[in-house]
Amino acid sequence: MRIGVDCHVLSGMFQGSRTYISNLYRAIQGLRPAHDFVFLGHWDQGKYFGEDSVHVEYLSESRWKRLTYQTAPLVERYRLDVFHSNYISPLVLPAKPLVTIHDVLFETHPQFFDRSEVIRNKLLIRHSAKRARQIHTVSEYSRRALIDIYKIPEDSVFVVPDGVDLDRFSPRPDCSASDRVFGKYGVRDYILSVGRLEPRKNHVKLLQAYALLKSQEGETGPLVVVGQKDFGFQGLFDTIARLKLQDDVKILESVSDELLPDMYRAARMFVYPSFAEGFGIPPLEAMACAIPVVSSNTSAMPEVAGNACLLVSPDSVEDIAQAMLAVISDPVLAGKLALDGRKQAENWTWKHAAERYLSAVAALE
Q: Same structural domain for residues 145 and 11?
């Protein structure tokens, strides 16, 4: 088959769908599949998937032009049998539609999204799901939600999970990571959280839990939050000011791909109290780096983390603070979480995801 892949997300904001497309298709190519792939996107950075791959430039950066009339002629020109989109398929598509819908949190947790985004997604993503020949999603939690909410036949929805690059995200026993992070950002022995600055990631309660931890423990090290501003981010900064944490909290909106693994390795723990996730890549990256993880006990996160982290209620400031205190005050527990986390991360490789993908698309031939 000739499979077209919508890669416009690779030139956009750092987010889960960008990580997914990038790593999944690189892993697929490593398996040397029989299919031919054509990657459609914006390729200012050159041939992203290698010189031997076909890269096609979209005619414009307009989402609506891409979804309405500009994709179909490219599909016909390159004789594509299948076209793989993220969330929303083009409305006119002369190929079999394959769509990855990472989650339907806008259906189950609409309070964490802009109202216009909820309305748009309910119309367009539902439409894409109904007309898709095959749907991929990243967890069993998201698969069940898709089937139950959209009344889609179970045999048309496949789990092709997220993964983690175990070479890139790996423990390093030396102090070089800590030195590099300190040289760049001036922080050591910090508590880390990674995720877009938006209400669903629950940064407000994380800040409240951090303030409570400081009142109980005193010296905890700084809190570092890595993430780009998104919808509803102002509450985070208001909370920092209200709790007088300006000297204790560092917000990093841009960390390079090269330095991100060091950010994990140099942390004393990773905390991710998100209200809901279709998968949850950052906790997995932290576990791969053998860092103790505190994560929410909701949605897909227990499925991904298993028993390798401390699971807490995202609604409870006290739960989050007590879990952080447990890691800080109990070196044996912290060491066990680090070892268990690395083992758990080894269950979620991009090679495994690529194998699941190729097994699923075989049904489209």
A: yes
